[in-house]
């Protein structure tokens, strides 16, 4: 008894052009492209809604209070004095202090990890630095209040709850962001750049300073701007260690060792005790508008610094 095995026949291409075109369409790619497009549009839409909500609640403050009084130097909501200048000054002072501490320390740490440190040490330090970014801000606030503030007071400050204490805490919170993104930016520089510089006789430091850092400039700028954004938007830790005094200290180096109050701390401390729809309520949302505009300005500045030497990409290009 013999058995026959049917050999598979090759598939014949369809003679219908529309059916052949339909089979060539990659449905998965189309789905992913539309999903990314919807995500991008929805992000812009949500940011627009947030700004419109802030405008609806905070715009009466700019209409009902003269700008000279609104940006005055006296913040006494009980007496209807809503001068936001001390709050704006406190936010700027704490942020500048944090940037002065965090940016040089973060960039030098990233350069050491990315260019100088041996591989085994990098594998140990990089996860530890990333773990630091996950510590809740309230825990850092407690640490600053219990341990750091008494230390600052023993250094000679009239009180331990000062702008310098807040700047130290904010710098500590911004360091993981600056180090991680900067180290990734340095890692993205092609190895050929380093090999070429070393081949023409440059030292390792000359290679880092004149080749690697300029090539990674866009990533370093983004790291610094994200660190600044983290510093200016932090609330809980700053509210616990800066003293919450809505005043403008005398100009000079000693102003870092005086109590200040930031805009974010004011919103968090007073929003729960104001009547909805009152002028105080509208002023707090007006402070939110100012914070939103400052953050948008920082992001716009970062975009200009990063994209100043590159042609602007159009949609769909890789």
What is the overall number of helices?
13
Amino-to-carboxy terminus distance: 63 Å
Order of helices and strands: HHHEEHHHHHHHHHH
The largest sheet has its strands arranged as 1-2
Summary, kept brief:
The chain has 318 residues and is an all-alpha fold.
How do the helices and strands line up, and which of them pair or pack?
Elements (H helix, E strand, L loop, with lengths): L16 H8 L2 H38 L2 H4 L4 E2 L4 E2 L2 H32 L2 H14 L4 H18 L8 H25 L3 H9 L4 H12 L1 H17 L2 H6 L21 H8 L8 H29 L11
Antiparallel strand pairs: 1-2
Helix pairs in contact: 2-13, 4-7, 4-10, 5-7, 6-7, 7-10, 8-9, 10-13, 12-13
Summary tags:
318 residues, 2 strands, two-stranded antiparallel sheet, mainly alpha, 13 helices, 69% helix, 1% strand
How would you explain this protein's 3D organization?
It is a single chain. The protein is an all-alpha fold and 318 residues long. The protein has 13 helices and 2 strands, in the order αααββαααααααααα. It has helices at 17-24, 27-64, 67-70, 85-116, 119-132, 137-154, 163-187, 191-199, 204-215, 217-233, 236-241, 263-270, 279-307, and strands at 75-76, 81-82. A two-stranded antiparallel ribbon has the order 1-2.
